[in-house]
Each structure stands twice: as structure tokens, then as C-alpha cells.
Amino acid sequence: MSAPGLFAAPRLIAAPTRDLSALTRIDRRAECAPESVGLSERGVERIWSAVENLYRTRTHPAITLVVRKRGKIVLKRAIGALRGNAPSEGGDIEPLQPDAPICLFSATKAITAILVHKLVDDGRLCLDDRVAEYIPEFAAHGKGVVTVRQLLAHRAGVPSLPIKYPDPALLKHWDALVHMLCVAPPADPTFQTQAYHALTGGYIAGELVRRVSGLELNDALQEWLVAPLRLKQMTYGLPESARARSPHNHNTGPRSYWPMNRYLHRILGVPFEMAVDASNDDGYLSSVVPAGNIFASADDVCRVFQMLLDGGELDGVRVLRPETVRDAVQPAGPIQFDHSLLVPIRYSPGFMLGENPVGMFGPRSSQAFGHLGFVSVLAWADPSRELSAALLNTGKSLSPTGALRWAQVVNAIAQVCR
Q1: Please, what is the end-to-end C-alpha distance for the chain in angstroms?
Q2: 354-384 burial string, b = 16+ CB within 10 Å, else e?
Q3: Whole-number mean pLDDT of the chain?
Q4: CB 258 within 8 A of CB 1
Q5: Labelling 123: which of 49, 178, 224, 412 has CA 20 to 30 A away?
Q6: Tens digits of residue pLDDT in 25-74
Q7: Measured distance CA(387)–CA(402) in Å, rounded
Q8: Do 308 and 329 form a contact (C-beta atoms < 8 A)?
Q9: Which of 415, 364, 348 is nearest to 117 (CA)?
Q10: For residue range 365-384, what is the model confidence (pLDDT) as tens digits?
Q11: How far is 377 from 371, CA to CA, in rounded Å?
Q12: Do 413 and 73 meet the contact criterion of CB atoms below 8 Å apart?
């Protein structure tokens, strides 16, 4: 079979110069002395050198990274541009700031899961309660046996919307989406098959939060996480007042090709390019997509994962009880072949989990937990390394070189902080 577009000219950002200092911003006041947390200056620069090499692939117009070791920030940096260096952009280049809000895409699922765990923490529901106890209409076609734990671990039987060509405009119609998922027959009537729920599970989890708490999702997010953790920017969608500070997402690298375009279409529900374009559209920015459109700075995302790493508390403020955090990051079962992602992976109720000898979060990462977002966004914590990190970026690419350099960044963080 031919590969349409494979040999077309790749879409790349402006060629970086050898000296990247003009496109680099470092928050020196936030970064601690590496020696104070058992690291070396050389180790920290090894991590940043890997980020610079990722930028040099010309597949990411904007990258921000925050890494904490033993609770202290060792890197808080940005490289790239807010505007002006992407394939479709012209004009002057405006350097990116480390606190720029960037879309988390599927890493949003982890934050939404924390809101569900907050309800558990408050004694308002249990992970082994049936979803239909709170959303009765979800019981249709035998789904009444699905538990909250199964829902958060991608075993609810609704990995995709029950329509062939979903219109991105559907994102504005919360009630219609929830109804569609409630009346849909399950893909697996036994609810034993693990199949990544790219967007669908988030709507049911979000509806749980709404019905049990009586709060809209953004209000719950602000009250339960943003305010107590003193986050600067974390919202479902992006208010118009913040959009000038947020870089757009861009298709970069090779044109989509078979079989990757078929694979990604199966997961996302829409073509790869359409998903990227939609992420910059007002409909997406103005909606609440509980599995896909939180915007936040890398620092704020890292603070959330540091809170989890510290047993539910940060800077003297308790958000969750330690036992709630333990339940949230415990495996929901053994490693299994995921029938959506087509790879073996372990989930907890809400998080992707690391592996030995190597996993998504680097080598020897079996204790790590976090979440990937649309190819290359990654947020995680690793108790064995006393590490929390957030790597946010705006290039959506099928470039093998970009994927390799991205993995080298994660590996460098894991190796330096071992």
C-alpha cells in the first residue's frame, strides 16, 4: 500500500541557530542549586542539552519543562517561541516564557481523575461503587455493572463515540455527548478488556463530579486544586484573556502516513491533522473537555504531581489523604495489551504507570505514575527518584527523529535523578 504524503516536504519550524540563548528563557529565581538536592550542575545541563536537541529536530515550536527533585525546582525553563517560528507563521519571533499555559491534551485525564479521587477523599463515593448509582442512565445495555475504578482504568466498554464521523463541534454539547455514551452498547460486554478511552471516559468521569458535587468542572478544579495549591493557571479550555500568552499547537514533521494515520484516527476519532487544528479553534478553547483540554503552565502541572508525590500535601496544605493517593496510583490490574493503543500498558484509576526495565517514564520506572498527552506532552512523578516533572510542548509530529529525541529527554531526567 502506498503512503500518501510520506514523501511530501515536511512541515518544520524555523531552522534554529547553533546558539539557542535568544530562544531560551530560564527562571533563575525558581531554580535551586542542584547540589542542595543531591544533583550536579553537569547533570542538570545534561537534561537541558537533551531538550535543546529535541528543539533542534524542528518539530516543536515551543517547549517548557519543570523538574523537581525532593520538592525543589531544579529546572524551570522554556525554549522556542510564543509566535513566529511555526511552519504556518510569519512575523517577528516572540520568545516563549516558562509560565506560558499550554494544552495538556490527554494528560488532562490525570487531573480530572484527581477530582474524582477528591470525592472519594471526602467520603462522597467509593472507587468500587457502580457508575450507574450516580448516573442511572449509564446502566443501559449492561453497563450498570461498571465501577468508578473500571471507568478510570479504561475498562468501561466505551472507548470511542458510537458515531463514525464525529464533528469537533460536538465538544460544545456536553449533555448530548453524555447521553450518547450512556445509551451506547459496550464494546466489551464483560468489561474485562482494557481499551484506552481517549475522550469518552472523561465525559462520564466529569459527569460524576458534576452530579455528586453539584459543581461544574472548572469550579471544582478551581476550588479543589487551583486555590489550595496556589496555581497560577489551570483551566478546562482557555479564557480569552489568557490566549495571547499561550502558543498554538502545530502539525510538524512528515505528513501523516499509513498505517500511523489509520492508527491515530482510531484512537482520536478524527484525522490527526483535524485534531491539531481543532485544538486552536475557539470551540475547543471555549469548551470543557474533561479528557483533553486543560491548559496550564508546566510549573503548575508539576506542583499537582508534587502534591501527589508528597502524599496529598504541598507547602503545608493538604488536598488528599495519603491513603487516597495510594489508591489512586495503585495498579488496577496487571500489565495488559491495550486494545485501543495496541501496546501493553498498566493503568491505575486515572494514571498511566511506569515499568521495569524501561517504561514511558524512563528506565527502572515501575513506581512512576503520570500521563501522556497527544504524542509528546508528559507529566509524571516517580517516588523512587523523589522526582516530579512536566514536559509541555506544541509540536504534533510523526517524526521518528523527534520521537527519539523526546525519549532521550525523559531518559536524561530519569538517569540524572536516579
Answers
A1: 45
A2: bbeeebbbbebbeebbbbbbbbbbbbbbbee
A3: 93
A4: yes
A5: 178
A6: 999 999 999 999 999 999 999 999 999 999 999 999 999 999 999 999 99
A7: 24
A8: yes
A9: 348
A10: 999 999 999 999 999 999 99
A11: 8
A12: no
Residue type at 132 in one-letter notation: A
Residues 6+ apart with CB under 8 A from 344: 335, 336, 337, 338
pLDDT at 9: 62
For residue 254, name the pLDDT band (cuts at 50, 70, 90): confident
| Helix or strand run (H / E) with residue 387 | strand 387-393
Beta-bridge partner residues of 372:
378
**Nearest alpha-carbon partner for 326 in 383, 269, 377, 378:** 383
Return the DSSP state at 84: S
Give the pLDDT score at 99.
Answer: 98
The single-letter code of the amino acid at 32 is C
pLDDT band of 4, cuts 50, 70, 90: very low
Q: Which three cell numbers stand for residue 80?
A: 522556542
- Please tell me the number of Cα atoms within 13 Å of 61 on its side-chain side: 27
CB atoms within 10 A of CB 15: 8
Give me the helices (H) in 222-321, please: 260-268, 272-278, 282-285, 298-309
Q: Which of 206, 208, 199 is nearest to 166 (CA)?
A: 199
The pLDDT tens digits of the residues spanning 183-197 come to 999 999 999 899 999
Query: Which candidate, 389, 314, 351, 345, places its Cα nearest to that of 113?
Result: 351
Query: Tens of pLDDT along 319-366?
Result: 999 999 999 999 998 899 999 999 999 999 999 999 999 999 999 999
**Amino acid residing at 404:** L
How many angstroms separate the CA atoms of 299 and 64, rounded? Answer: 9
Distance between CA atoms of residues 107 and 339, nearest Å = 19
Task: Retrieve residue 209's grid coordinates.
Answer: 463530579
